Amino acid sequence: MAQAPSRPDAGNASVPGSTLGLTALTATAPISWGTTYLVTTEFLPPGYPIVSTVIRALPAGLILLAVTRNLPRGQWLWRSLLLGTLNIGAFNALLFVAAYRLPGGVAATLVAVQPLFVAGLAYLLLSEEPTRWRVGWGLVGVVGVGLIVLRGQISFDLVGVLAGIAAAGVMASGIVLTKRWGRPAGAGAATIAGWQLTLGGLVLVPLALSFEGLPPALDHRAIGGYAWLSVVGALLSYVAWFHGIGRLPVVAMSFLALLSPAVATILGWLFLDESLTPWQGLGFVLALTTIAAAQLTPDAIRNLVRIPTTTKGA
């Protein structure tokens, strides 16, 4: 019997204090993903992007399956396979292709167009009409990320550019479809994350073995790097991410992804002796302003005004 998807918890999102806490929790996901650039370049063996994605996703998914003891059934089997491919398998593989063929800043800037893709798909699939406010701030966010990471380096490798844009597109599709389908009854964020991480990792196993083979013997640094990416960058982060998708407006939530390149740049400055310029400082201001502005809609402002009245009358 097919399981009906549960409805998003709109009640939580309607209370500003609750929304702020939920947004902060969801933001921990792209913040942790921002560490991927540093961990990959400094700790992992080079030349194994697909293998690294499998090691990152599959163990985390299997652990969540063991903890939740819940497997997808009926229509949720193919839905989870599709969502896992989009959110985990295809996105990470395309992101690594872009990162290998383009300067990291160019790749990050291309992926930063994701909120614009989400706005368009949300209109088509969720009937969420894109507002000029969020579309405008989406463009500002792309400019901000570009100022942070480009540093005057521009590459026109066609395959890399297409891979970066495709990475933004597939993750935007995964976010919107996850929101559209909701969750089956009795399945929480940990269950959904377990399904998608496992199936997304399994999809890439044949590709990893065919094109890259097994990585060399791992030293302690590589083991530590993979452990960080799997536990923090996959298991914990995707549970928080899918928890947010179920309760926050999908377009506003997609802007949180702009935190990843910002975190990557800060870590490069702190640990790799990379310099920060005034233009990058301006980029940080634009990116952070964009993330905040995307959460402040007229409805949210009206809710803030209503809270004292509601509390007084209770």
Would you write up a description of this structure?
- The chain is mostly helical.
- It has one domain (9-313).
- The protein has 15 helices and two strands.
- The chain has a two-stranded antiparallel ribbon.
- Helix 4 packs across helix 11 and helix 6 packs antiparallel against helix 8.
- The N and C termini lie far apart (43 Å).
- Residues 1-15 and 309-314 have low confidence and may be disordered.
- Pfam families: EamA (PF00892).
- Residues 26-149, 159-292 form the EamA domain.
- It comes from Micromonospora sonchi.
- Its main location: membrane.
- InterPro entries: AA-Vitamin_Transporters, EamA_dom, EmrE-like.
Notable traits:
disordered C terminus, mainly alpha, single chain, 77% helix, 314 residues
Question: What is the topological layout?
Answer:
Blueprint: E1 5-6, H1 10-13, H2 16-33, H3 36-43, H4 49-68, H5 75-101, H6 104-111, H7 114-126, H8 132-149, H9 158-181, E2 183-184, H10 189-211, H11 220-245, H12 250-254, H13 259-271, H14 278-295, H15 298-313
Pfam family, one: EamA
Keywords: Membrane, Transmembrane, Transmembrane helix
Domain EamA: 26-149, 159-292
Backbone CA Rg: 19 Å
Q: Give me the side-by-side strand order of the main sheet.
A: 1-2
Low-confidence stretches: 1-15, 309-314
Tell me the strand percentage band: under 5%
Helical run tally: 15
State the major sheet: 2 strands, antiparallel
Structural domain count? 1
Distance between the termini: 43 Å
Average pLDDT metric: 81
Total DSSP E strands: 2
What is the chain-wise order of helices and strands? EHHHHHHHHHEHHHHHH
**Net shape:** globular
Structural class estimated from helices and strands? mainly alpha
Pfam families: EamA
Domain EamA: 26-149, 159-292
GO cellular component, one term: membrane
Protein name: ABC transporter permease
